[in-house]
Amino acid sequence: EVQLQASGGGLVQTGGSLRLSCVVSGLAFDAIAIGWFRQVPGKEREAVSCLSIYDGSTYFADTVKGRFTISRDNAKNTLYLQMNSLKPEDTAVYYCVAGLVYWGQGTQVTVSS
Fold first, then answer.
1. What's the rounded Cα separation, in Å, for the pair 21 and 54?
2. What single string gives the DSSP state of each residue in 89-113?
3. What's the rounded Cα separation, in Å, for the pair 55 and 40?
4. Which of 13, 29, 40, 64 could crosslink 68 through cysteines, CB 3.0-4.6 Å?
């Protein structure tokens, strides 16, 4: 059974930081593209950041470039999203996603103004 367990969300003030973690089990973690999406109620899910397994390249949404970084620890089967300089518009439920097929349960990030 594939499981993606996200954690690290919470309430933070504008300008603060959070680090999200996603522990993956049940699949070959180092052989699948993996990333983070987010969703605000009433809006479509947005791709935040993704990691390629082919060349290690990364994707970041324009709205988070320069503030967020993505990384993975293959030994721990864990994906991270370091979020700095958080803004109220970053408030959303963040999901880790593997292969665009497997979705975690989401973790709430709330940034207060």
1. 22
2. GG-EEEEEEETTTEE---EEEEEE-
3. 31
4. 64
**Rounded CA gap, 61 and 29, in Å?**
23
Distance CA 44, CA 60 (A): 17
CA-closest candidate to residue 104, choices 90, 94, 112: 94
Q: Count Cβ atoms below 10 Å from residue 96 Cβ, excluding itself.
A: 27
- Give the 3-state secondary structure of residue 88: helix
Spatial strand order of the sheet with 18-25 comes to 3-7, 18-25, 78-83, 68-73
Instruction: Give me the tens of pLDDT residue by residue for the chain, a chain 113 residues long.
Output: 999 999 999 999 999 999 999 999 998 888 888 999 999 999 999 999 999 877 788 999 999 999 999 999 989 999 999 999 999 999 999 999 998 899 999 999 999 99
Phi, psi of 89 (to 5 degrees): -75, -5
